[in-house]
Specification:
The protein has about 325 residues and is an alpha/beta fold. The protein has two domains: about 120 residues, Response regulator (Rossmann fold, 3-Layer(aba) Sandwich), CATH 3.40.50; about 150 residues, Rossmann fold. Helix content is about 45%, strand content about 20%. A six-stranded parallel sheet has the order 4-3-5-6-7-13, with helices on both faces. A six-stranded mixed sheet has the order 9-8-10-11-12-14, with helices on both faces. A two-stranded antiparallel sheet has the order 1-2. The longest helix has 21 residues. The N and C termini lie far apart (about 75 Å). Bound molecules: beta-D-fucofuranose.
Length: about 325
């Protein structure tokens, strides 16, 4: 009797085993789905600008379930500490890829070493980073910020020359982005070089405004209480340009490339370009936030075992108040 019961138990067990073998289910291991979806943890800086919102939307659209991904999205609310915490959690969750849009250029060595030790590839997007060991991340996809700045400075030199102002003192206010971010560092150093090669350019003020319209309004209002003798305002993104323009208009200054303050901006968001069409922003250098498809392509290439370039700069253009048209704005994706 005992033997018969044992035999039944063994057969039942075998049947159970064979059942689970023939109907495999998607197991869940510590929150990670082992199906064929690629699990990506994305640490975003925050939501400080229109550019950033478009960037987040592009990432979410490209790394969608229909496209083969499961995306864990984290908004760091403009704190690098939060980004480090998010990445550590991604590592614990055993994601397949980590994507990070870093707030600052430095401070990434240890966390990326942790990701590397766990065998998780890291893709850096939007702003670049500086680490001792370049093999800590797979690739950087974003903009050449120094080149963007050079484009702006060369355009300004050209305009001032056409206006016959190469001998006049040109008083410049410099509204910077988030101090220590690669977007700020690149755009700033291009202007610094411009100031040092043009003896008649004079820096009236230089202050970081975290890429936000509110901070730029506040800082520009403070500068204007000190002086209204300003020829150029170089803002490191559209939000800051809009804030600075608001402050200047409040005190009766005209923003206009022909007979007012020359405002220079970066991003070329729809709103920024509308200001350009209205003549208030003289030059808007494009910075393309639609990076999701590039990230998707890199991950798919890596999945197929194809080589990946270390740096991928996105092609960008520029718009000025003399040549921009409504059609150009209508054709924009952000
Ligand atoms: O210019 C600004 C944003 O890192 C390129 O960050 C990005 C910058 C962009 O908030 O609008």
């Amino acid at each position: 009797m005992k033997k018969r019961m044992l035999a039944i138990a063994v057969v039942t067990l075998l049947l159970l085993c064979s059942c689970t073998n023939t109907t495999p289910q998607t197991p869940v291991v510590s929150g990670k789905k082992m199906g064929d979806l690629i699990l990506v943890g994305f640490s975003q800086v925050g939501a400080e600008s229109e550019w950033r919102v478009a960037h987040t939307e592009s990432m979410k659209a490209a790394l969608s379930e229909e496209n083969g991904y499961e995306l864990i999205y984290d908004d760091a609310r403009n704190e690098q500490e939060n980004q480090l915490r998010a990445i550590r959690t991604f590592i614990q969750q055993g994601v397949d890829y980590i994507v990070v849009a870093p707030r600052l250029e430095t401070g990434w060595d240890s966390i990326l070493q942790e990701a590397k030790d766990a065998g998780i590839p890291v893709i850096v997007i939007d702003r670049d980073i500086k680490v001792e060991d370049r093999s800590l991340y797979t690739t950087y996809i974003g903009s050449d910020f120094y080149k963007e700045g050079e484009t702006a400075v060369a355009w300004l030199e050209d305009l001032l020359e056409k206006q016959g102002r190469t001998e006049d003192t040109i008083r410049i206010v410099h509204i910077q982005g988030t101090a220590g971010s690669s977007a700020q560092l690149g755009r700033t150093s291009a202007l610094e070089r411009g100031v040092s090669r043009n003896d008649n350019w004079e820096k009236v003020a230089q202050e970081p405004c975290d890429f936000t319209r509110a901070k730029a309004y506040e800082v520009m209002s403070k500068i204007l209480r000190r002086t209204k003798d300003i020829d150029v305002v170089y803002c490191e993104n559209d939000g800051e340009a809009l804030g600075a323009i608001d402050a200047m208009e409040d005190v009766g200054l005209k923003c206009n490339a022909e007979d007012g303050v020359i405002v220079i901006s970066f991003d070329a968001t729809r709103l920024g370009l509308e200001y350009c069409l209205a003549g208030k922003i003289a030059l808007n250098v494009e910075c393309n936030p639609l990076q999701g498809p590039y990230v998707d392509a890199v991950i798919k290439r890596r999945q197929r075992g194809e080589p990946i370039e270390q740096v991928k700069y996105i092609n960008e253009t520029q718009f000025d108040c003399f040549t921009i048209t409504q059609e150009m704005i209508d054709g924009r994706g952000y």
